[in-house]
Amino acid sequence: MKVGIDLGTTYSTVARYDRTNSRPDIINNSFEKELTPSVICFLDNGEILIGEDAKDMQAGGAGIVAASFKRSMGDDRFAVNAGGESYSAEMLSGMLLKKLISDAEAKTGQKIDSAVITVPAYFNDFQRKATIRAGETCGVKVLKIINEPTAAAISYGYNRETNKTVLVYDLGGGTFDVTLVKISKGNIQVIGTDGNHVLGGKDWDAVISKYVCEQFLEEFGVDPRDDEAANNELIVASENYKKVLTKTDSVTVQIRFDGNSGKYTMTREQFNTRTEFLLNATKDVCNKLISDLGMSWNDIDEILLVGGSTRMPQVPAFLESIAGKKVAAHSDTDLAVAKGAAITAELYCSENTGLREVQIKDITAHSLGALSVSPDGKRYVNEIMITRNSKVPASVRKAFKIVEGNLTDRIEVYTLQGESRVPLDCYVLAKVVVTGFSNDGNGTQIDVEYRYDENGVVSVSAYQGGAPLQVNPEPVPEDVEWMNGAPTAAAGVPVAKNVVICVDLSRSMRNSMDDVKSAISDFVTGLADGTTRFGLVGFGDKIGIIRDMTPDHNTITSALGDLKVNTYGRGTDASPLGTALTMLSGRPGTKMILVLTDGIWGKRDFAVSEAITCRNSKTAVVAVGFADADFAFLKQIATVEEGAIYTTLNKLGDTFSTIATAINAGSMGLRESVEVKARLR
């Protein structure tokens, strides 16, 4: 039997697709209830209670209680210590899943062999993989990990013929997701998603607990929250008080602690006022998603409420106030996620069940990137490969160049998940080591592929010449603070570099030539290291090779003295790129053409075609302009990221210095390539 499991923060549910009635049904637990509390209690006698019994113990303040552990999935810092054992969130989830499956099998009399398990849309790779492992420990095959809002949309829309754009507002016990979905003739296409995996109904419960404990503390001078058993009892009670406030205007809370007894009343108005900041937090997430997608609230046809916490009257009222439209009431608020997972499990069945084919197009909530080096070579950056809200599965393959002279036989690749350009603002997901590639020191290239599978789980693979390479995972170092520092040269291996400097000698340069000569001289002197060859080309209406390729930088600096305007004509009808490319042809190492100009070129289309030839031959072109130079044109002939630079004459020296730094750091690669940062061994 295949089932769908809503593995929730506060409550969990199991459902299956009933082929007889052609609908998904909830499988009740051993207490004949649809919802099972996601609570585990470790008693002093070694007994472990799960679900209803554990929640009763929590309410009574007995034993060591584990609750809301879903929030800590994938976090190796979280642990519950009981009976001399340490339990991670993944282990606790596995125990809960085993109980859910056992109860479902007892109820149906059938063996469960596989399941679709739901997760918050905003779960990252750590959390998704931990959920899969937790399911596998129960001896079932995890068919798929599906996002909770997507599952709810499937449950709602799989048998509807209408075309709607639906905002799924999923406020569960411990997590919040908002997802925009297009439903068209029962097919589900997720447009975008965002969320907060540490915001949920438990935070509303905590507001009630805080309010009454503050009253108790003021009256008696002691705080019940300081005692673990009393606090657990109050946590369970606060959830019940919240439910009362969904139906009545006030609730009275009685607390007995440390020989004192207090009775306090909280009105719904007080509750709404004190929890308004939580609703505003969900509003911020909604507005950000809608804005990021270039949409407005007017583009949304319907709001679908999912999760038990949306039963609070303040939620639909709040959404109506910001959306300007009525929030539609739907059944199965608590059960839609599990039912959607059951439908998905049925779709994975190879048998002809009569369930019509439903197309489900989901997305990823997080961007996936590689640790790279900034163009100026001064810092590490997160080079985003797959952007958030991309359809899954998705993959991107990028070239990683190993320059001549570098004899490394292994490359370390770090994978990041997040939106920030700053690496440590993201999750450092994984480190893999790529080996088995050929490298004779004459320069080579491998391709690194980053992939999200349909579960939103990340994988990295590598290829050379189309053949797969060895990719072995290694633990991410505990200390990754070096990612905040400056990159260092790889093992001090000298790398051959070839640079042709093309100088505009048209008449417009007559008042700038002294500054140009000085900047070029400093540039060449700064790069000179015995392995770098330079060439010097002048151009105007014609082209002239002033100095052919030479490792002697003094030869170049001496030749600068001979530069004169109008030597090759008064205008700039000629493109120097083809001549420079010929000078670089066949030379080992990296190749770069640096163009300096201050005016508007005549035969632009020809220059652009030559730039394309340079790019195809893996020759970098950097175009620096000042005065009347056309920046848009510079961007057309530049073949590297940020390789078109507009500057001023007095800052020309600083610009050339920045380019020299980037060349030495090896970060001036082709536009189609990404310099994946590898710590070389």
Q: What is this structure, in a nutshell?
A:
The protein has 681 residues and is an alpha+beta fold.
**CATH topology tier name of the largest domain:** Nucleotidyltransferase, domain 5
What is the total tally of β strands? 33
Number of separate domains: 3
The CA-CA distance between the termini, in Å, is: 50 Å
Percent range for helical residues? 25-40%
- Poorly predicted regions: 489-494, 669-681
CATH homologous superfamily label of the largest domain: ATPase, nucleotide binding domain
Helix run count: 16
* Overall pLDDT level: 88
**From the helix content, strand content and strand pairing, which structural class follows?**
alpha+beta
CATH architecture of the largest domain: 2-Layer Sandwich
For the sheet with most strands, the description reads: 6 strands, mixed
Rg calc: 32 Å
Strand content: 25-35%
What would CATH call the class of the largest domain?
A: Alpha Beta
